[in-house]
Structure prediction request, 507 residues.
Amino acid sequence: MDRALWVAMTAARNTTLQEAANANNLANTGTTGFKSALHAFRTVPTEGGASLPTRIYSVDSTAAIDFRQGPLQTTGGTFDLALGGPGFFVVQDPDGREAYTRAGDFSLRADGTLVDRQGRIVVGEAGPIVVPGDRKIEIGQDGTVSALPQTAPFNELAVVGRIKLVAPELNTLSRGADGLFRTFDRQPLPAAASLDLRQGALESSNVSPVDGLMATIRNARAFDLNMQMIQRLNTSAEATARLLNIA
Amino acid sequence: MLRSLSVAKTGLEAQQTMLDVVSNNLANLNTSGYKRARAVFQDLPYDTVRAPGAASSQTTFLPTGLQLGNGSQVSGTSRNFTQGTSVVTGNTFDFAISGPGFFQVLLPNGTVAYTRDGTFKLNNEGTVVNSDGFPIQPAITIQGVTPETIVYARDGTGTALDGQGATQQLAPFQIASFINPAGLRAIGGNLFLETTASGQPIVGQPSINGLGEIAHKTLENSNVNVAEELVNLITAQRAFEIASRSISSSDEVLQRLGQL
Prediction:
């Protein structure tokens, strides 16, 4: 019976872990560019030794990242950017290499450099993008940043740079501790053409509250089932002990 | 105790802040020159419990890891400096800036603050001051002219007629712009202070070098959009409910554990 108890205990404990991941998704319903984490139970059979292959533990694991498009929310901000399809923005990691994000709520540093919310430099196709302060900034669908004079003459258009957009294979990406995505080999990716960049909009979180709340209920019930299992096993252990006492 | 409990708590806190920001925007619906703020969320650092690719035996590797997030937090409030609607008031000392730029106001402690609110008045010395009585910078003193005849042009230069009907030049307006206005620090009273994030003020004559134009006898309304704020209010409220549902579910789990 003790082994069955371990199976039920492991399942209950990993259900609470899965609920923690689900609670994290639900807590991030308002986070710009957030992508849900998909968790799944992984089977861990116990084999070998003298025991029979009777037990299969279930263990929680981060199976994948849900890269589905989040709804676009119009904000009107000059440096609020969103991708209306596949692709990622590139920001510079503290170690100087590329990291990828869907959160396009960028702003300017005091020297005019385009940075993300945490102050990391947004990578352009030819280095960081530095915009002049006295110009109106227009960002085209392909990421081209141009500076227009605020006042006449309006025809002095100057291209400042082009925001680097990449389209990596989604299964080569993993999420880092800081929530940014990185490829496994960390090599810089080539800039992708024909992606759909929109200025003045932000991509909302793609967490589905319906899925999240369903998962909450499912996890609570799964936990309850395992708790009942533990109690049943306890009852049968008591019965065994009684029998042995009589003998 | 239970991980999901503390994770859901961060969601409640974040949505609470969102409600605070939205209600502040709605409260300032009629504040001249007010610029709406937006709460910006980010996900908290992730804990990698088991890394993908770790060895599960001598010859096999785990295909997937276990990564658990810690919830969300408000990383900051971002202020939207889009133009508010202009209202022609007809008052001689009402000014608005159409385009980028801020009026400069000298605080009593000697620092310069920046504002989009052009509800000015004259003080007892004839100096143009804001609603709190702080003089604007560089100082504009109106003496020996009929106040009703004051006319300020779009480039910030002003004229008025004196008692004899002769045209007098008035001190011009100078306005300041910032490379990153979102980095300014709001101190209340419709005033902002420069920070390292905003950069140094670029002071100049209105309507040239990218600065906005002066609109005389006009005020700029707040740029709060009621429909948008109400939608934000609903979103925040529902997200709050979802996070609290997550908490009550975690509570049930703990309750069930206590019954063992």
In short: Chain A touches chain B through 65 residues (CB under 8 Å).
